[in-house]
């Protein structure tokens, strides 16, 4: 058996990949990944062979990577953001029996790269929620939205909208508004990639048209505020210890 | 004005720092941070001057870093894990008015580095929760625990125990057990540092004694399972598309 690295490459720019992730990619005989992520690291891959496919090709992709590793190759299976969160590490473990030569290398997930672009909205207890109903029924997503309101969590929303599914985000923000008022929302499209857009708004002024699958929305909790164009959730140091 | 980088250094090992974070540290005139984090990157700092202090010294630390940056220095304020989540980015924005020369550099947060050591427990919708009541009253924490049960979220628990506060974790796990059954728990102490301990157990067998402030606990959702010693939350690809 060779080796399979499952590598989180972060949001896109190469300087947000960890050294461990970069070393894995550089030491691999073969790079597997979703088309878009392979494109993002094209210049790192050089002439190495790649295997890439599209959405809904995840099982085929993971099986291909596992088979190549079994045959003795060193393989990197690359994932956008982290390697596990809404990514492929768990499918790798589900599809194989011998874990000895599998290494999971974490990456910067979008919630954190997006938060850094907006200011500091993610500062304390947090929910990360995907609105994709491909793998999670919307009934469960709705229950989680109710839970978020109860806990007054800051929320990072992944996959807020796709072509087939354009109304869920509105339903979610409407629920937040009804239960917690006109919260501050940060929208980052193409974070740390070409054509990045950063926008901060309130729920009632939310611009649904700029949101797509390459957008992450962070909705603050009831303490989040806007200062000089940055979105800030106070951690509570000043309330506790004074300034 | 000089420049202030707020840098997330990840869990501890230097190869889990991003290149952007490393470059910031190497280009700085001065490094500020909590004692323990300064120690972790000691060999990267070399002979640069440092300012470090302990817990509850956060306001003093941030003010010192901001003042040095104002006076023209390039300063890195380093944080364990990410630079914003349970960290100092938001306090920086709270304590200054001119944001032009402040740059937030995200880092690998403990939930994700710990998840990678356990297998792939973090795979879909997630709550990150701190049990420290220094800045968040336990009443709010309890409400959030109720919300987690309603949403059946995978939960990463930071700061699970301190010397003064050793019963909250038991209260939380008891609530999870009552509402959702005997969930699988992953315990990682000193993740990616010397003396790392990785342990997977069920709530009823939970070993409270090994938990301390350098431990993160990940509690699965009702779908999380154990396979060959790894903790896995299925993403749902196999249920949806078959194997």
Automatic annotation (TrEMBL), chains A, B:
<dbReference type="GO" id="GO:0009236">
    <property type="term" value="P:cobalamin biosynthetic process"/>
</dbReference>
<feature type="domain" description="Tetrapyrrole methylase">
    <location>
        <begin position="3"/>
        <end position="205"/>
    </location>
</feature>
<comment type="pathway">
    <text>Cofactor biosynthesis; adenosylcobalamin biosynthesis.</text>
</comment>
<dbReference type="GO" id="GO:0032259">
    <property type="term" value="P:methylation"/>
</dbReference>
<dbReference type="GO" id="GO:0030789">
    <property type="term" value="F:precorrin-3B C17-methyltransferase activity"/>
</dbReference>
<keyword id="KW-0169">Cobalamin biosynthesis</keyword>
<dbReference type="InterPro" id="IPR014777">
    <property type="entry name" value="4pyrrole_Mease_sub1"/>
</dbReference>
<dbReference type="Pfam" id="PF00590">
    <property type="entry name" value="TP_methylase"/>
</dbReference>
<dbReference type="InterPro" id="IPR051810">
    <property type="entry name" value="Precorrin_MeTrfase"/>
</dbReference>
<keyword id="KW-0808">Transferase</keyword>
<keyword id="KW-0489">Methyltransferase</keyword>
<keyword id="KW-0949">S-adenosyl-L-methionine</keyword>
<dbReference type="InterPro" id="IPR035996">
    <property type="entry name" value="4pyrrol_Methylase_sf"/>
</dbReference>
<dbReference type="InterPro" id="IPR006363">
    <property type="entry name" value="Cbl_synth_CobJ/CibH_dom"/>
</dbReference>
<dbReference type="InterPro" id="IPR000878">
    <property type="entry name" value="4pyrrol_Mease"/>
</dbReference>
<protein>
    <submittedName>
        <fullName>Precorrin-3B C(17)-methyltransferase</fullName>
        <ecNumber>2.1.1.131</ecNumber>
    </submittedName>
</protein>
<dbReference type="InterPro" id="IPR014776">
    <property type="entry name" value="4pyrrole_Mease_sub2"/>
</dbReference>
